[in-house]
Amino acid sequence: MSPRTAHTAVAVHPLLAERWSPRSFDATHTIGDEELVSLLEAARWAPSSRNSQPWRFLVGRRGEPTYQRLFDSLVSSNRLWAGDSSLLIAALAAERAENGAAQHGPAYDTGLAVAQLSVQAHALGLHAHQMGGFDAERLRVSLGVPDGYRPLSVTAIGALASADLLPPELRARETAVRERRPLAETFFGDGWGDPLPVAP
């Protein structure tokens, strides 16, 4: 167990317990083609409503134009650290099917794809940090996203570096104890607010 392993009520798979979202990435690390395709395949095989697969991804490795455009779309607080990641990936959801009908839950399905990508990153010894702090319109314009596709997130992926490389305010967050709301306040049984009997 690493110092960042989640303290769960009962054991869960190590890929889930040990997954976390760092900000300190190794600026010298690169992601090879096989690793990249492995990440993308994990996302591609996510479940979706009626197998609609509403997700689309914009992928940039550090040093490539797409990476820079994705980086430029980030809010200033994320630009403080995300530029050291090996890879930036924007997730977008198609709001309508090919026949023009409204999709059922495209953001939900795309979130599942990003989750699978994040877990696969951890399985490869990498780390992923999903970000909602970005300018969706800037991303849309700079990368030629057509109408009907909604940018949802940008994920930084790379190899972990020391927290000491971060500015002090980010360093404290990087090393803080990981926390989650208790099971009893999140999962309900007979009705809203009524905890499941098994939830501590």
From TrEMBL:
Keywords: Oxidoreductase
Pfam families noted in UniProt: Nitroreductase
An annotated Gene Ontology molecular function: oxidoreductase activity
InterPro entries: Nitroreductase, Nitroreductase-like
Residues of the Nitroreductase domain: 17-64, 82-158
Gene3D superfamilies hit by this protein: NADH Oxidase (3.40.109.10)
Keyword GTP-binding annotated: no
Record-stated family: Belongs to the nitroreductase family.
Entry protein name: Oxidoreductase
